[in-house]
């Protein structure tokens, strides 16, 4: 009886490790859900919106001008920023504000991108801290999740700015969306 | 009939093994440890003392940098700010708040901004490091080199040490002092 219990525990741990690794690969190489906060991307993305950012374009170096990207903040690597790419390497970007008389321009150095928020009046972006290295970009925002009044999607998100939903906090989504695949495969294996 | 049955069982075993082995390997390489060969002479004599004839292979600890805790003297691998697909391996000379005297940078004295590092190769003059492109963001740190694992004659644990002539001059804690930004 003890041996049966031990075998069950070991197989449970094995399945957890395996599905955790598959989840990690999905979040690192396919895409992840991110909760955005702050007014810097209004009206495109408003406060507390959940967006889906895909990682494939970033890994293949296919981020283009006009894409909305999630990037690590250059001054705090644990915070993420969500901005639009306004200049790639070699582009000429305007650094002066709309109220300045003399327009100043700068060229984006090699390996860097120039980010700006859509809400230009209320956004700290490359106009204040300069271009950021391309390698800080995490993913490209491609979808916005709409709130639907069902019991899946009214999950309350923690109130932290530009917080990346860590994999285990996504467990309700994960279970709901993939349960027919994974739980049925466990039943088949038994 | 027996042969097609055996082929199908083999195929199923291969596929299920594949879906276990590849994600686990990828997760281990991303989160725990990474092995990399050092190329170039920018870290001589600590790494690659013989040059191109027998390059060192180092073990990069990715678990210890998951919270971006890096100390002075560590040898770290960072994603290059000039080429996002290349990794460079250098020694951390200054962390955020340090006041550094540079070797060939556009400003002679630099205060390392918050969330940034100052990295330099041990072979000054033959190194593409912060003296060329300035402080690097902590988000670019990839891993900390902890051991040299090849060639076997050079098995050793890499100890963090800052060359005495490259110690920071001063250190201001926190983000309040801003007078010496470049």
Automatic annotation (TrEMBL), chain A:
Enzyme type, top EC level: hydrolase
Primary subcellular site in the record, as a coarse category: mitochondrion
GO molecular function: serine-type endopeptidase activity
Keyword field: Hydrolase, Membrane, Mitochondrion, Mitochondrion inner membrane, Protease
Protein name: Mitochondrial inner membrane protease subunit
Active site residues per record: 40, 83
InterPro entries per record: LexA/Signal_pep-like_sf (IPR036286), Mito_IMP1_subunit (IPR052064), Pept_S26A_signal_pept_1 (IPR000223), Peptidase_S26 (IPR019533)
Oligomer status and interactors: Heterodimer of 2 subunits, IMMPL1 and IMMPL2.
Location of the protein in the cell: Mitochondrion inner membrane
Annotated source species: Cyprinus carpio
GO cellular component terms, A-Z: mitochondrial inner membrane peptidase complex
Gene3D superfamilies in alphabetical order: Umud Fragment, subunit A
NCBIfam families, per the entry: sigpep_I_bact (TIGR02227)
Location of the Peptidase S26 domain: 13-96, 103-144
Cross-referenced CDD domains: S26_SPase_I (cd06530)
Family listed: Belongs to the peptidase S26 family. IMP1 subfamily.
Biological process per Gene Ontology, one example term: protein processing involved in protein targeting to mitochondrion
Entry EC number(s): 3.4.21.-
UniProtKB/TrEMBL annotation, chain B:
CDD domains associated with the record: S26_SPase_I (cd06530)
InterPro entries, alphabetized: IMP2, LexA/Signal_pep-like_sf, Pept_S26A_signal_pept_1, Pept_S26A_signal_pept_1_CS, Peptidase_S26
Topology of this chain in the membrane: Single-pass membrane protein
Main location per the UniProt record: mitochondrion
Active site positions: 42, 90
Keywords for this protein: Hydrolase, Membrane, Mitochondrion, Mitochondrion inner membrane, Protease, Transmembrane, Transmembrane helix
Subunit structure: Heterodimer of 2 subunits, IMMPL1 and IMMPL2.
Name of protein: Mitochondrial inner membrane protease subunit 2
Organism: Cyprinus carpio (Common carp)
């Amino acid at each position: 009886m003890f041996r049966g219990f031990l075998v069950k525990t070991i197989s449970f741990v094995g399945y957890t490790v395996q599905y955790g690794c598959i989840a990690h690969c999905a979040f690192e190489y396919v895409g992840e859900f991110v909760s955005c906060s702050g007014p810097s991307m209004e009206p495109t993305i408003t406060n507390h919106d959940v967006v889906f950012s895909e990682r494939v374009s970033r890994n293949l170096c296919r981020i283009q001008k006009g894409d909305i990207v999630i990037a690590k903040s250059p001054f705090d690597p644990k915070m993420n920023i969500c901005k639009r790419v306004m200049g790639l390497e070699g582009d000429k970007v305007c650094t002066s504000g709309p109220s300045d008389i003399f327009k100043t321009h700068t060229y984006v150095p090699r390996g860097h991108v120039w980010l700006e928020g859509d809400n230009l009046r209320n956004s700290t972006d490359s106009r204040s801290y300069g271009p950021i290295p391309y390698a800080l970009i995490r993913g490209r925002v491609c979808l916005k999740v709409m709130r639907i009044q069902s019991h899946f999607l009214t999950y309350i998100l923690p109130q932290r700015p530009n917080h990346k939903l860590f994999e285990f906090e996504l467990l309700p989504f994960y279970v709901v969306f993939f349960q027919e695949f994974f739980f049925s495969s466990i039943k088949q294996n038994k | 009939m027996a042969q097609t049955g055996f082929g199908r069982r083999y195929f199923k075993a291969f596929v299920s093994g594949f879906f276990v082995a590849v994600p686990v390997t990828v997760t281990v390489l991303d989160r725990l440890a990474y092995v990399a060969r050092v190329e170039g002479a920018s870290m001589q004599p600590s790494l690659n003392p013989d040059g191109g004839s027998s390059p060192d292979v180092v073990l990069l600890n990715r678990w210890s940098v998951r919270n971006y805790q890096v100390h002075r003297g560590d040898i770290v691998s960072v994603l290059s700010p000039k080429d996002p697909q290349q990794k460079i391996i250098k020694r951390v000379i200054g962390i955020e708040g340090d006041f550094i005297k540079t070797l060939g940078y556009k400003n002679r004295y630099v205060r390392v901004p918050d969330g940034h590092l100052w990295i330099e190769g041990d072979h000054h003059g033959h190194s593409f490091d912060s003296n060329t492109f300035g402080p690097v963001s902590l988000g670019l740190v990839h891993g900390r080199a902890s051991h040299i694992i090849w060639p076997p004659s050079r098995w050793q644990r890499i100890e963090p040490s800052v060359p005495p002539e490259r110690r920071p001059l001063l250190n201001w804690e926190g983000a309040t002092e801003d007078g010496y930004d470049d």
